[in-house]
Write a structure and sequence with these properties.
12 strands; 21% helix
Length: 250
C-alpha cells in the first residue's frame, strides 16, 4: 500500500534558510494510520522546488515583462517552440540550464514578491542530496528525497508534478526482458518511478494550500542507500529525442 501525507505548518522559507532544519519538526510530527510518527527508512520526502529555490536565494528582479523576458532568456539554452498569445505576449517552450524542457524556462512569478521572479534550483540533484544529508543527521533515518516542479506535456492538457532532483531514489524501473501475462518479452518498457512518486505526492500537497512538502510511504523498493544518479538520468539525450524540433508560429 502506498500512502502520502502533506503536513501543515511548513514555515515561510527565505534566502539562507536551512531547509532540513525547518522541515525536521514538521516531518517528526507526522502521524500515520498505524499509529507510527515521523518518517521511516524507505519513505520518500517530496519537496516543491519553489521552497528549495527560495532557500538557495534564487529570487531575482523582474520588474516588468521586458525584464522577465530577459530573465527567461538568461535561463534558456535552446528555444523549442513559441506561440503568441492573444494579449501580444509570447509563450516560449525552451530547454533551460538544468536540461529541462519547460514553459518560460521554469521561471516562476507566482507566490513571490511583486517585481521578482524565482529561478529553479541551480542543481536540483545537489539540492536533493543536501536535504537528504540534513534530514538523516537530524532524524536518524535516510529517506529518499525528490525535488519537484510542475510542467505540461505534449499532447496533454494540464500540468503534473515531476522530479527535477533526486537523491536515494531509483528513478527508473527497467522492465525490458520481463514477460507479460501472455509470455511476450517486454522490449521498451521503462517506468519513470520518480515522476510517478512526484505525481502521487502532488495529490496531497500543493502551493495553493500551503503544503509544499509531502511524504510518500510504501515505495521502499525504490529507495536506495546511495544517492544514485539523480533525476538528471531521466532527461532524454538528443540522440533519443524524436520531438526535438518545435514550431515557431506566426
Amino acid at each position: 500500500m502506498v500512502l502520502a501525507q502533506a503536513p501543515d505548518g511548513v514555515p515561510t522559507v527565505t534566502r539562507g534558510d536551512d531547509l532540513a532544519a525547518l522541515l525536521t519538526p514538521v516531518l517528526a510530527a507526522l502521524t500515520w494510520p498505524d499509529g507510527s510518527t515521523g518518517i521511516a527508512e524507505g519513505d520518500v520526502v517530496v519537496v516543491a522546488s519553489k521552497i528549495v529555490a527560495k532557500a538557495e536565494g534564487r529570487l531575482v528582479a523582474a520588474r516588468d515583462d521586458a525584464e522577465r523576458d530577459r530573465v527567461i532568456a538568461g535561463e534558456t539554452v535552446r528555444v523549442v517552440a513559441t506561440r503568441e498569445r492573444p494579449d501580444g505576449s509570447v509563450l516560449r517552450i525552451v530547454e533551460n540550464r538544468q536540461g529541462l524542457v519547460m514553459a518560460a524556462a521554469g521561471v516562476d512569478v507566482s507566490d513571490v514578491p511583486g517585481g521578482t521572479a524565482l529561478l529553479l534550483p541551480e542543481d536540483p540533484d545537489a539540492s536533493a542530496r543536501k536535504l537528504r544529508r540534513g534530514l538523516n543527521a537530524r532524524l536518524g533515518v535516510r529517506p529518499g528525497v525528490l525535488v519537484t516542479d510542475t510542467a505540461g506535456r505534449p499532447w496533454r492538457r494540464g500540468v503534473v508534478d515531476m522530479a527535477i532532483g533526486a537523491a536515494g531514489v531509483r528513478v527508473q524501473a527497467d522492465h525490458r526482458g520481463r514477460h507479460d501475462a501472455y509470455g511476450r518479452e517486454l522490449q521498451t518498457t521503462i517506468v519513470n518511478l520518480a515522476d510517478e512518486i512526484a505525481a502521487a505526492a502532488d495529490l496531497v500537497k500543493g502551493k495553493a494550500v500551503g503544503r509544499p512538502v509531502a511524504v510518500v510511504r510504501g515505495m521502499a523498493h525504490a529507495v536506495t542507500f546511495e544517492d544514485g544518479d539523480g533525476a538528471t538520468a531521466l532527461i532524454r539525450p538528443p540522440a533519443e529525442d524524436m520531438f526535438r524540433r518545435g514550431v515557431n508560429e506566426p
